Amino acid sequence: MRHNKTVNHLGRQASHRKALMANMAVSLILHKRISTTLAKAKALRTYVEPIITKSKDDSTHSRRMVFAYLKNKEAVTELFREVAPKIAERPGGYCRILKTGFRQGDGAETCFIELVDFDTEYTQNGGAAKKGAAKGRTRRAGGAKKTATATENATPAAETPVAEAAAVEAVAAEVE
User: Is the pTM of this model over 0.90?
Assistant: First the structure.
């Protein structure tokens, strides 16, 4: 039974686990997306979300509090300059976990953990562009088939051998 066990110890001592979470949080802030196991990603999410919430208030005290967790000046600077303005209106849920399958060696479940506002696939602008580009032909049976007209069957002028030879000569003349 798991009574009163809220922290996943990840098979590590407290100091090792603290260092692991700090290093993973720094990597997540700097790279915006990292690949890890599902257990570590879930533990990292509970570690990094309060840190991101503290970064909304850009004061000396909050910077020192965040630095106490991360222990990396570049990550603290990135967090307060780049990440905090983007997530200012978001009330929580700064990280997203995407499962990617199982690891070859030990069968551990792997995933990506990423900052939500920094992924263009799922944001409003990037998602709309991808959806429009991915829309293609559907596989439906039946329906009326169009009869080909003589103009559709005729080859365009650019595809005839004479036109291709003329185009090649024009390019060669431009090069010289």
Answer: no
